[in-house]
Amino acid sequence: MRSSYLLAVPVAMSCLTAAGPAAEPLRGAADVLKRAAEQSGKTDPATKPPSDSAKLRADLTNFTTRAASLAPAAAAREWLELGDRFARLPMQARFGAGRGEEPPPQAQDLLMALPPPAAWDELAKAIAARRAPSTLEDTREFGLRMLGQALTGDLTELARQASAFEALLLKAKRDEAMGLVHVFRALDEALLALSDDRKAILTGVERQLTAAERDRDLGYSSISLPDLVGIVGQEDATPYVRRALLSKASNLSIEGKATQALARQLALAVVNEMKVPRWGLAESLDALELYEALEKKFAQTKPAKSANAADALADLENSRFGDGYEKQLAKTYYLMALIVRGRTVDAAQFARRATEEGGEFQVESAAVAALERAGSTAALDTFLHDLLAQTPELPYWETYFSVAARTGNTDRMLTLARTVAAKPDLAGEKSGSIRENLYRALLAADQVEEGVKELRALLATATCSKSRSGSPKAWPLPCPSRTQTRILATNTPMLTRRVFS
What we know:
Blueprint: H1 2-17, H2 29-39, H3 52-66, H4 72-88, H5 91-95, H6 107-112, H7 120-128, H8 139-151, H9 155-171, H10 174-194, H11 198-213, E1 222-225, H12 228-232, H13 234-246, E2 251-254, H14 257-270, H15 288-297, H16 309-319, H17 325-340, H18 344-356, H19 365-373, H20 377-390, H21 397-407, H22 410-421, H23 428-444, H24 448-461, H25 482-489, H26 493-500
Helix pairs in contact: 1-8, 1-10, 3-4, 4-7, 7-8, 8-9, 9-10, 10-11, 13-14, 14-15, 17-18, 17-19, 20-21, 21-23, 22-23, 23-24
């Protein structure tokens, strides 16, 4: 019963929010002015009759309180009548309430007012007795039929109805089809999520892939594959996964570890045929070779140097955004995979190069957690220590503090932080940044009083200025406010940790 209701939710929301042919068109300006003139003398809301939307909301509330006591057929008939009244509301009435009235009812209000499960069979029968839909103008009737089939769990008939609706979408003009595709997609995704019928699942997957392979993809810029290996086995799953990898869909999500592993294996074999990079598949310590193959296939060449100041500023602005999140996460997994494989020289080169490329490279915690589960936390600790000892300006200090605390190597971490902070040959801003890392390192090592002491010294010696003065800063933080100075004057470790950790 719960599965039927969960399937009905997206179907009902999609079909009931689709504008049907009964909806009143938007009025022209002359009509609006005429109606305004007619209403100009009526200013007392107490004498104004309730609007159609207000009456419908009241009747929905009344029906909800009585539905359980009604005979199933009567409850089904009354709910459908309420739905028909909702469909006849002018478009303006769906989005605006009269003065002093509650907001107009929405599709979710109709859904919440569905009669109890005991009436669902009668509701499905009553829907089936209505005029059969035959064109896209009958979207609401298509949706109602799908709703009845979803509530009663008739997935076979529901899939047949979906295919009929898809056939009409394919014949329609593109703009009209794209305006209604959300109905079909909501249904398709719900069917895939809840069906346990092998044939029905494969039919849904085939529909996604076929649509994504067309020029007019009916909204399938994303493909969601269920755990096909778990459902049909690796041999039967392979052609579907391969087609998904080679499709033009910009987003691909895959359920199930076995199916994800199959996708990584296939992606490595067909990478040169891919139309878009599948960085999401490289989010694994097992995807080192796949990441390298994707980098080679979809390498981004550096643009030519801008010839004028305007273009240079535009390039600089674009570089701020860097890689998308999937690529960013894949880069972190690749770095962790290099460390696990013992390729520390390659890892160091990659870590340096990643910070030099456009955007900011951040070590994502999910990849670090995967490395820890692989038992390589100590290797990461040593790698970060050696990397930062050679190139202290790299932005990996916070990750190093966290990893060193986990491995218990905080003494070595503090020694490095102090050594680097004491280097006399660092530029002012860089020196201040590294000294900031020192006080954070002390706090990470639970040496709170030492951390506060270092921060006080940093504040006392830093040459900072108000942002509007234009004078250079010796460190990247703004001057402390009076409140911050007063906090530092106290020697309360707990409070200090809260403020600065």
